[in-house]
Amino acid sequence: MPLHITAITAALLPPLLLALALQTVRHRFRLSAAFGDTDDPGLIAATRSHGNSADHAIIVLIMLGLLESRKANATLVAG
Question: What is the per-residue pLDDT across 3-26, written as a single tens digit (0 to 9) for each?
Fold first, then answer.
């Protein structure tokens, strides 16, 4: 049983995570901050955006896969 929605979501998440990581790297270069957040609100926001997305991406994929494998309503699964 193919999990089409889960596969599409799994394919879309890495570019999102890469974009968020690049945003964090840009902030770090701008501030010359290799470690920590230097109390800069922009760097803190970029770091948390990337970290939260990475944390939640796995949970979302697992939940989508479970819903899709149990033949849940496609509208519920896809949003």
Answer: 888 999 999 999 999 999 999 999
